[in-house]
Write a structure and sequence with these properties.
Strand content: 15-25%
Distance between the termini: 50 Å
Order of helices and strands: HEHEHEHEEHH
Oligomer: single chain
Largest sheet: 5 strands, mixed
Number of helices: 6
Number of domains: 1
CATH class: Alpha Beta
Radius of gyration: 15 Å
CATH architecture: 3-Layer(aba) Sandwich
């Protein structure tokens, strides 16, 4: 019976939407964030659920959501790592992967999610994001 229930819920997990959240007041970075979401959507051939104006995913809440798989991509301030007592250089150990940075803001992805993409898709995605 448990296996049957698991099999019923499996498609929900496999086809869950990819979430990208950011709350940035800087208009230039907000434009970068929207372009990055479009690139991710195009390169990975998925539907991005954007949350770009909500105050729910602000600063450390965005890192927490990213770490725990609630969202897969976010943009945060670079200084946030120092404010939280985290080492910027060890971000991969925290479960974050740096995709791009611009004007003191970082575009981060969940490391576990990127590992599932495959090297070719990951490289192509990072190359396109750096050209924004």
């Amino acid at each position: 019976m448990k296996k049957l229930i698991f099999l019923l819920f499996l498609p929900l997990f496999l086809f869950a939407d990819i979430k990208f959240a950011s709350f940035v007041e800087d208009s230039e970075i907000k434009e970068f964030t929207l372009k990055a979401a479009d690139v991710i959507d195009t390169e990975l051939n998925i539907t991005i659920v954007g949350n770009f104006d909500s105050r729910i995913y602000k600063d450390e809440a965005a890192l927490y959501a990213l770490k725990n798989g609630i969202i897969k991509f976010t943009v945060v301030r670079k200084e946030l790592f120092a404010e939280l007592g985290l080492s910027f250089e060890e971000m991969k150990e925290y479960g974050f992967e740096l995709l791009s940075q611009q004007n003191g803001y970082l575009l981060l992805a969940q490391s576990r999610f990127l590992e599932t993409l495959g090297q070719h898709k990951k490289t192509k995605l990072i190359k396109r994001l750096k050209n924004i």
